[in-house]
Amino acid sequence: MVFYGIFSILLIVMYFILSMKAKKTYAMFVERYKSGSSLVFMAPVSLYIIDRLNIIDRLYSRISFVQRTMISLYGSRDALQYTKMFLAQLISTVLICLLGSSVFALLSQGDTTIFIAGCIITVMVPVVMFKRIINMENERRNAIVTELPEVVNKIVLLINAGETVQQALIRCVATKQAEDGPLYKDLREAVNKLTSNEPFHSVMNELSKNCGIQEVSIFTTTILLNYRKGGHDLVLALRELSHELWEKRKSISKTKGEEASSKLVFPLVLIFVAVMIIVGYPALSLL
Asked: What is the pTM of this model?
C-alpha cells in the first residue's frame, strides 16, 4: 500500500516539474500539430521526455512504420512533427494509466490485482493506438480510391472538349468544395503549384508522393507518359485506367457493405437473446 502511494506521488511530482520546464518550449509546437491528438495538456511533458531521452533516434527501427503512416496521412513535410505528437500522446496515455492503476490500488487498500490489471491495460494501449492510425490510413486510402474514378472521368470529358491536361485539372478542382476528401486536398495543392508556374512533371510527381497510393501513381504516370502527345492516346489510356478504378471502387464498396453487415450480427444476437428471455420467462416461471 505504501508503494502505491509513493509511486503516485512520484508520478505527480515528476509531471509538475517537467511541466514547468517544457510548457513554454513546446507550447507553439503543440498548438500547431495538435490536430487529431488527445491529452494535449500533457503533450509538452511527453515531448520533453521524447527529446531528452532521444527516443525517436534510439527506437527509429521500431517506430519507422509510424512515420510512414504519418507521411501518408499528413504529407512528408510534417510527418516527423506528427510522429512526435503521436508518441507524445502515447506516453501521456501510458502515464495516465500508470497513475490511475496506482491510485485505484491505493484506494482499494493495496489490492495488487487492480494494479496488475492496470498494467495490463497500459501494455494494451499502444497496440490500440497503433491499430487506430493504421485504420485511419486505410480509410484515407479507400477515400482516395473512391474519389479518383470521378476525377479521371471529368478529366477525360474536359480533354475531349478541347482543354489541356493542366486546364482540365484546374477546372476539375475548381468545381468541388473545400470540404471534399483527401484526394481533392492534394489536388488543390497541385493546382496551386501549377498556377504558380511550377513544372508540370514535378507537380505530378509531388502529387503521387503526397498521396502515397499505387492508383494515384498509375494515374500520374499515365498522364506524364501521354500528355505531350495528347489527343486520342491520352484519352484512351485514361479511359482504360478509369475502368480499372471503377472496378476497385466497386470492390471497396462491397467490402464496406460486408463489414457493416458483420457489425450488425452482435446487436442482432443480443436482441434475439432478449426476445427469447422475454418470451420464455413467463413459461419457465409456471413450471
From this structure: 0.73
